[in-house]
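Please think about what follows:
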Amino acid sequence: MDFSLLRRAPDVEGPGLVAADAADRLILDEAADLLAAAPDGTVAVIDDAYGALALGAVDAGATDVRSHQDLITGERALQRNAEAMGAGADIRSLPSVADAVADARVVLVRLPRGLDRLAEVAALIAAHADADVTLVAGGRIKHMSVAMNDVLGEFFDRVDVSHARQKSRVLFARRPRARLADERARSWPQTRRDGDLGLTVAAHGGVFAGARVDVGTRFLLSVLDGARPDAATAVDLACGNGVVGAALARSRPGLTVLATDRSAAAVASARATAEANGLADRVLAVQADGLETTPDGTEEFVVLNPPFHSDAALSTGIAHHLFAEAARALRSGGELWCVWNSHLRYRRSLERIVGPTRQIARNPKFTVTASVAR
């Protein structure tokens, strides 16, 4: 397969941001015999970035491949790449890991950066896949650790390691401990009570900060009391675990909040956070690329702590995309309140994309600004 044909769109594209890499190729090479021998409909792919693994599996002979990707942008990139290669009918995108891996004999996984995401995914695979499943999980060595072997070893009796190639490596897991795995899978999302905020925070594996409140978000929350006090609605953009939306809804009884994120795990976490705090009737969590579900010029108050990673790569492209989404969705005079790492110097971009921007607060690491939509 010609991996150079793959594209990241509709995700951010740019220098150093690739749609496939050496880890994808190694996973497929190590799994080639398994894929060729797998019966129809028994191959699953989890957290494929932009379709390299699913399309590579089809190219290797797999049929009716099932896929689950956490990011909606990744799922759409897979669909576009599959259509461009004439393989759209061979791959099914499914809404959950459990759905994708049910009775699977071969599961390909792109290793996540966080152990908590790997633990949840591995538990779901071990609980729902076939008893003879082989899990083939790979990544770049710089993002792997020995602890990943231990996580897989909790849910599988046998874990093997491939030779390294082009700074990548693959882990193989076999003989799932289904009963233990099912019990552990049911323990997600994890919850934690934040005494300072008086909120219970819930999070699935892989969500930024987990069930904790990161320092940037905490700084933002400390200054939100005076933000658009008369707003009837608010948007928690790139909501993560949903603590910002929950805090706004709890402090303003008349407010309804839309929480959006491109991550399925984040949206499920935000929904669970709202439910844990008795706010489910006023916080609506929706998976979306930015504010694509929101009409132009309709919102009056958007709150954002923008991510600055695209997969493992540092990128400000996601933040700029979210600024543009907020600018489009805000009505004239509406405001985007944003917290950002001060060294990123987003103020000029906010002025250009959204409108006049004032500094609300600053500490040695973070800046909070409010931008008024033109």
